[in-house]
Amino acid sequence: MTNIYPPKRILMGPGPSDVHPRVLQAMAMPTIGHLDPVFQRMMDQSKDYLRALFKTENSLTFPISAPGSAGMEACFVNLLEAGDTAIVVRHGVFGDRMRENVIRCGANVIVVDAVWGTAPDMALVEDALKANPHASVLAFVHAETSTGVEADAGALCGLAQKYNCLSIVDMVTSLGGIPVDVDGWGADAVYSGSQKCLSCPPGLSPVSFSEKALNRIRSRKTPVQSWFLDLSLVMNYWDGEGGRSYHHTAPVNAMYGLNEALAMHMEEGTDNVHARHRLMHTALVAGLEAMGLSMLVDASCRLPQLNVVTVPEGVDEGAVRAHLLAHYGLEIGAGLGPLAGKVWRIGLMGEAARASNITVCLSALGEALNLQQHSADTGAALSAAQAVLAG
Amino acid sequence: MTNIYPPKRILMGPGPSDVHPRVLQAMAMPTIGHLDPVFQRMMDQSKDYLRALFKTENSLTFPISAPGSAGMEACFVNLLEAGDTAIVVRHGVFGDRMRENVIRCGANVIVVDAVWGTAPDMALVEDALKANPHASVLAFVHAETSTGVEADAGALCGLAQKYNCLSIVDMVTSLGGIPVDVDGWGADAVYSGSQKCLSCPPGLSPVSFSEKALNRIRSRKTPVQSWFLDLSLVMNYWDGEGGRSYHHTAPVNAMYGLNEALAMHMEEGTDNVHARHRLMHTALVAGLEAMGLSMLVDASCRLPQLNVVTVPEGVDEGAVRAHLLAHYGLEIGAGLGPLAGKVWRIGLMGEAARASNITVCLSALGEALNLQQHSADTGAALSAAQAVLAG
C-alpha cells in the first residue's frame, strides 16, 4: 500500500484555515510527557495567551483536548442537568447543534429562530426569556459559520444577565477574527476552535468559564454525564491548586501548535489581526460584487472571516468548487442545511486572510464561472479588490 | 513573554512514548480540509491499517478525534442506556474509570475486583455473569497501564459471549505492543490510544465495533447522551455510504501522524514489532533484577510494554524520577492510586522499546539509587541486559 500524503492547498473554506509554517513546525517538535514540568509551563503560557484573546480574567481558561464540537458539549453538559430549561437562539447549523446538546442533557429546550442569513432578533429573545422565567441558560452562536452572520453577543449576554440566565456563547469562528470580550459582555461559558481564525490544525477547543458558571457546576445535584468533559475533574489537570493531577492524556503536539499560533497572534497584536481580517474582507467583497456576485448577508451583520456568496442562477456550484480545487488547490466551502447548493462560503480566517489569497480566489472563481458560460469580469473584480488593498 | 519549547526527552513512562521523526514530520505536513478527497483517501488507508492491527473485518474501525478517555466513553455511551446493567472487571485505575463511565450512563454497575498487580480471576467473573443474567455488557482492560498486568482477553470475551453480553475491551496500552485479535476473540467494542505502542503523539483513540455492537446501537430507545461521540452520527463521516458527510472537524494533522505511524508498523511487521517489545522487556527485567530490584507483577501476566518495578524500602521514588529527568531527560512513570509512591512504571512502548533506551534507563536508575545510598550494581544490570539482547 502506497502511503497517502496531502497536497498543498489554499484553505478558504469554513475551516480548517491555512496554517503558518511556524505552527506546522511546532507540531513536529519532540513529544514530551503531559505531566512534564516544561509542558506544564507551556500550559500556563497558553492559558495566559487565551485569556488575552478572550479578554477575560477567568482562571478556568484552557483548550479542551478535542475539536470545537466537544467544547460545545463541555459547556452544555457541565451547566445543564436533566429537567433544566435552556433557551437556544438558532440562526444556523451550529445553533441547531446547541439544541441537540440541550436535549441530550435531558433538559428542556426553547428555540428562538432567526431566518438563516439574518441576525437574531433581540425582541424575540427577550420575549422567550420573559415567557420562560425558569430557564437557566441562554445559548447562542456569536459567529455562525453556516451563514456568515454575526450576532450581537454583548446584547445577548446582557439579556441573559437581566433574566438571570447563564450565557453559553459559541466563539468557534469569532475568536481571533473579530473582537470578543468575555468579561466585558459577562459571558459565562464560551468555546472556540483551533482551526478557524487561530490558524492551527483542527483538534483543540479553547474554552473559558466564569465564576458564576463554576458555581453552577459546584452546586450540581447530579454528576456530569460525560467523564471526559467533566470540568470538576478536568480542572485538576489544567487549573490544579498545588500541582496538576492526571485526568486524561492531553494532545501534547497539538498544544505546541496552538501555543505557537497564539504567540504569533500576540506578536501581530489583536487589533492588527482584526484590522487585517476587516481589510481583506472589504477587498474580497468589492471584488465579488464587481464580478456581479452578491453576498447573502446584509453588511450590518456580515462576518469578515466568513463570506457567504449567493450562487448565481444556472451555475453548478459543485463544479465550480471542484475546478478551484483541481486547478488552484483552492478550497472554498459549500452551503449547509437549507443553504446547500445555494451559496459558497469563502473563509478569510487567520493566515488565509492575505492579499495573495484574495487575488487567487477572485481570479479562479471568475475563470470557473466563465467556463460555465456565466460571464464574470475577473479584471474588474481584481481592480476593485486591489483598490481596497491599496487603501 | 518568551515562548516555551519542549526539550528532547526519552519517554519510558506509561505514555506518551517516544515518537519517530517520520511521524513528527508527518504532523507538520500542510493542513488540508477534513472533507478534502485526498484526506478521505487517507482516512480509508488508516482504517485499513487499523483493521490489520486490531485483526478485524469490522467496517466501523477508525480513530475517534480525541484521546483514549474519549474512546472509552464512546464505547460506554453508545452501548449502554439508563437502567442497563454492566459488569466491570477492575484490576487498576482504568477499570475504575470504566465503572465511572457506566454510572454516568445511568446504568447499574457490578464490579469484579482483582488485587492490583494480579490478573482477573475468571471464576469470579463467571460468578458475576451468572448472578446478573440481565447484564448486557462485560467490560475489562486488556493491558492495565496502572499495574502492568495483562488480562486474558480471549477468555473474558468468551465469557461475555457465553452469557450473552457485549464485551467492551480497553486496548489502549495493548494495541501494537502485544497480540490483539478482535475478531478471533469476538470482542464487540474496543478502543486504544495513539500515544502508547503506536508511538504517535497523544490525541486520537482508534476504535472498532462489531456488527453485534452496531445492532445494539441501532436498537437503542434513547439517544446517545453525547452528541460528539454518537456513533450513529460519527459513522456518516468515517463510514458513510455514498460519500462522507460533515459531523465534526477531524484533527487532520494528528491523523497524518497516525497514518504514518501505522505505515511504519506495517513496514516492520506486526509479529516483528511484538517480538521486539518482548525482547526489550526481557532484557530490561534481567537488568533490573540483576540490580536487585523486583517486579510487581508475576511473569505469567506481565506486560512487556509496561514494567512495574517495586520501589525499594527507604528510597525516595520521586527524587529518583526527578534525577532521571534532570540528568538524562528520561521520563519514567510514578505509581497511581494505591500504588502511588510504591512503584515505578517503566514503559517500553513502540519506538521506546529500543536497546539504547534500556542501557540509559538501567544506567541512570543505578546512578540515582546509589546517590540515595541504595547500593545498585549497574555493571551487573547492564551485563544481564546485554546478554539477553545478544540473544
Describe the structure.
- The structure is a homodimer of 391-residue chains.
- By secondary structure, the first copy, chain A, is an alpha/beta fold.
- Chain A contains 14 helices and 13 strands.
- Chain A folds into two domains: 21-266, Type I PLP-dependent aspartate aminotransferase-like (Major domain) (Aspartate Aminotransferase, domain 2, 3-Layer(aba) Sandwich); 269-389, Alpha-Beta Complex (Aspartate Aminotransferase, domain 1).
- In chain A, strand 12 and strand 13 form a beta hairpin.
- Chains A and B meet through helix 1, helix 2, helix 3, helix 4 and helix 10 of A and helix 1, helix 2, helix 3, helix 4 and helix 10 of B.
- If you average the pLDDT of chain A, what whole number results? 97
User: CATH superfamily of the largest domain in chain A, called what?
Assistant: Type I PLP-dependent aspartate aminotransferase-like (Major domain)
Named at the architecture level, the CATH assignment of the largest domain in chain A is 3-Layer(aba) Sandwich
Please mark out the parts of chain A with pLDDT under 50 across 5 or more consecutive residues, or reply none: none
Give the overall shape of chain A: globular
Q: How many separate domains of chain A?
A: 2
Q: CATH first level of the largest domain in chain A: which class?
A: Alpha Beta
**Oligomeric form:** homodimer
Report the CATH topology name of the largest domain in chain A.
Aspartate Aminotransferase, domain 2
The proportion of residues forming helix of chain A, as a percent range, comes to: 40-55%
- Give the N-to-C terminal Cα separation of chain A: 52 Å
Order of helices and strands of chain A: EHHEHEHEHEEEHEHEEHHHHEHEEHH
Structural class of chain A: alpha/beta
- Total number of helical segments of chain A? 14
Strands ordered across the widest β-sheet of chain A: 2-10-9-8-5-3-4
Largest interface: A-B, 77 and 77 residues
Give the C-alpha Rg of chain A: 21 Å
For the report, how would you describe the main beta sheet of chain A?
7 strands, mixed
Number of strands of chain A: 13
Strand residue content of chain A? 5-15%
